[in-house]
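Let's practice the habit of predicting before peeking. Look at the sequence and jot down your guess about where helices and strands might fall. Then scroll down.
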Amino acid sequence: MTAQEIILKPIMTEKSYAGFPNKVYTFEVNMKANKVEIKKAVEELFEVQVARVNTMIVKGTTKVRRTKNGRVTGRTSDYKKAIVFLKPESKAIAFFESLN
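Done guessing? Here is the structure:
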């Protein structure tokens, strides 16, 4: 897999914004990617030094809609989330710094 296939998109939440000053960033990643591949992809794409990576699989939630024909239930997709910690001597990721 290439780096673009591993890192799908950044996750922008209040909790992820709180990590920006400490050089902690959150991404949605490919379900088949492991920590080593994620680390190499972030280092290649953003030209930074990664200290460590934490991953987790986020289960999709159940959604209920009420229509005139009755109740319809469905699920959102599961996805894998990676929390990336940069080394203190590494530069920050410019994309995230422009958001502050």
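How did you do? The radius of gyration is 16 Å.
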